Amino acid sequence: MRGWIAQSLAHLRQEAARSADTHLLKLTFPGFPGIDFYFKDEAAHPTGSLKHRLARSLYLYALCNGRLRPGQPVVDASSGSTAISEAWFARLLGLQFTAVMPACTAPRKIADVQALGGHCDLVEDPAQVYERAAWHAAQGACHLDQFGLAERATDWRGNNNIAESIIGQLAGEPHPEPTWIVCGAGTGGTSATIGRYLRYRSLRTGLCVADPQGSAFIHGWRERDRAATCSSSTVIEGIGRPRVEPGFLFDVVDEVVDVPDKASIAGMRLLEEHLGRRYGGSSGTNLVGCLRLATRMRAQGKTGSIVSLLCDPGERYDRTLYDQAWLAQRGLDASGAEAALRATLGSGEWHEP
Ligand SMILES: *Cc1c(COP(=O)(O)O)cnc(C)c1O
Asked: Which residues form a coiled coil (predicted)?
């Protein structure tokens, strides 16, 4: 058992050594002179999303806690990105993996999990994923439990976590201490890691969570209510959870911005225009959050930098968010929101998308 754990840890160490850090891409917009925008390209990970970091941490955590045994099947609940990364690491370690996902998950993500040798157990209601994953665990699978453990499996003080990487990459920039870092909330792991790290390093940077309008996190954070649930569903995958996940720490978040789905879709399109590459819906949500804060900085006559994340690649949503017919069927015409965001980018004044 100890021998197998040591061997598995060696595989994970080798994988980390083969992987490079992700790029921090810089953008400026005519309406915001003196404000620099940076986007950390988490789509550049081998498994295409920020969940590559989390999946590696969750396997390490399960192994070092003695919870994962040789030949034991592995399960987790996911909206897709984590499942892809976990399936990839399961293959690396020679383990069988099952992803419990909502049936409405982008078809491309389901296909990616299967291509990596993972099984997909699809449930109709997104809120059922937790119970179904627990059922698999009761049958003997090791539950990686991203929603329960994201906040503690990641080493928030260092080990090149996402916050340490961002702050290191900004060292030579005009505003190395960002005014804001903006991220979404799925497991809450990213915001927990960034928020803790900012305090640990005594930085004055504010942490803003941008999440779909009506999400449980937005209600929960505003009322300090961990029992809050969502008041509307979202088509933006990875964020906008139906409940306040255990990994979401209210106290390290300084601000929340709620973003309608149409605005996130518009943001996603503007990112493609400015970066020449497609990213997923939650990256668009992040851009809208950045612009909201930037208009406020500009109104106060402040300069500085704002950092956010590109969470996953656009190809995963070819048949959903990037498909006009799919959007039309759901009444999601984002052209008005796109015009509003464009006006904000050009003028530096907030136009409600
Ligand atoms: C998980 C996820 C997020 C949010 O990150 P957390 O660390 O889980 O809060 C944002 N976007 C995408 C695409 C994700 O998969």
From this structure: none
